[in-house]
Design goal:
Elements: E1 6-10, H1 13-24, E2 27-29, E3 38-43, E4 46-53, E5 69-73, H2 77-89, E6 95-99, E7 108-116, E8 119-126
Parallel strand pairs: 1-4, 5-8
Antiparallel strand pairs: 2-3, 3-4, 6-7, 7-8
């Protein structure tokens, strides 16, 4: 099993799209012609983030969607440094936290960005990829 996609409902589609494209590095791509405005953002040829306009009224019998956070894993020091560079260039604030090792699991570093009230984006990498980053 693997994560297929995450859907984020937002009243500010453009800001969310710009963050995921300009900072995260996803690609804005094709989306079926739904009646609700939105964007599909791609990684490695797959639509992994679906953005939906929150200004549309909720459907009867369906709870308003919400999400706590989404996490992206970066597998190399180069990917991690590139992300930090884009965050700096875009002047996006973030918080870091270290995940201590547990059994065979090595220490990891988490980086959290508050995209909007109630929407947090996490990036995680092996701590060794980010050794010079101060917590």
């Amino acid at each position: 099993m693997q994560l297929d996609h995450a859907t984020i409902v937002t009243a500010d589609l453009d800001t969310a799209r710009r963050f995921f494209v300009d900072v995260v590095g996803l690609t804005d791509g094709a989306r079926p012609p739904f009646r609700i405005d939105g964007n599909w953002l791609y990684a490695n040829g797959r639509p992994v983030i679906h953005l939906i306009d929150a200004t549309v009224q909720a459907q009867v019998g369906r709870a308003a969607p919400r999400i706590d956070h989404i996490a992206f894993r970066l597998e190399s020091a180069g990917e991690w440094q590139a992300l930090l560079g884009r965050l700096h260039t875009a002047d996006v604030p973030y918080q870091l936290a270290e995940v201590p090792p547990m059994g065979p699991q090595r220490a990891e570093l988490q980086l959290f960005v508050a995209l909007a009230p109630g929407v947090v984006i996490e990036f995680v990498t092996a701590l060794r990829h980010a050794q010079h980053v101060q917590l």
